[in-house]
Amino acid sequence: MSQEQAIKFTRGKKLREAKRQFDGAKHYTISEGVKILKSLTYTKFDETLEIAMNLGVDPKHSDQNVRGVVLMPAGTGKIVKIAVICKDERIEEAKATGADLVGNSDIIDSIKAGNIDFDICITTPDMMGVVGSVARILGPKGLMPNPKLGTVANDIAAAVNNARAGQVEYRVEKGAIVHAGIGKLSFVVDGLVENINAFIKAVIKSKPSGVKGTYLRGIHLSSTMGPSVKIDVSTIAQQ
What ranges do the domains of the chain cover? Predict the structure, then answer.
């Protein structure tokens, strides 16, 4: 057995052991689910708490797209690198926000050359025409600035502060699933519960007007290397 196979075997064994310590068929409250995952972590690194929501929408229809951004009250525990693209007269203003990269044509040229050294791209409305030239590059990577996500804004400082504070973007994927990382397992239970509730509330608020029937069909919580825990949807206020 190779070292890689041995690592996979060990991880698989630990995961199976973790799954045996709770009822995988039972639906728990959010607080119970968080406590279970925190008690079952076995890794040497700080795992991310992840949420997956199954929605009653059809992603193939544009009028049933569910997308947005929500600020995590307790933060995400993730360090992000922010790029700001703005006109020359606002360069100093943008630098004062503490953004990691600030510029305009130089950043665009770097992107075209395949050098994308940032996690979030923020721009001002008057630069969208320029940023549009690299939309085909940034779009597939989920980095294209978007007014709905707060990354196209006149208030550069507010946009950067929100990004640093712990904004989480969500977007319905194939299978009508919305998935996101919303904190670290090292966070206190109350902080993680607060983040989860904020995320769920935002997704529910984004319900397309044309959707009929049950919108929120299922919720699962999991950690990077841990098991998946089912959440009782009946305990979630959907209005």
Answer: 22-66+172-235, 82-164
Q: Which CATH number is 82-164 given?
A: 3.40.50.790
Q: In this structure, how many other beta carbons lie within 10 angstroms of the beta carbon of residue 119?
A: 16
What is the pLDDT tens value at each position of the chain, 239 positions in all? 444 443 343 445 555 665 666 777 889 999 999 999 988 877 788 999 999 999 999 888 888 889 888 999 998 888 889 999 999 999 999 999 999 999 999 999 999 999 999 999 999 999 999 999 999 999 998 899 999 888 999 999 999 998 888 889 899 988 899 999 999 999 999 999 999 999 999 999 999 988 888 999 999 999 988 888 999 998 886 64
Question: Residues 236, 197: contact at Cβ < 8 Å?
Answer: no
CB 198 within 8 A of CB 71: yes
Radius of gyration for the chain, computed over Cα atoms and rounded to the nearest angstrom: 20
What are the counts of helices (DSSP H) followed by strands (DSSP E) for the chain? 8, 10
Fold classified for 22-66+172-235: Ribulose 1,5 Bisphosphate Carboxylase/Oxygenase (3.30.190)
pTM over 0.85: no
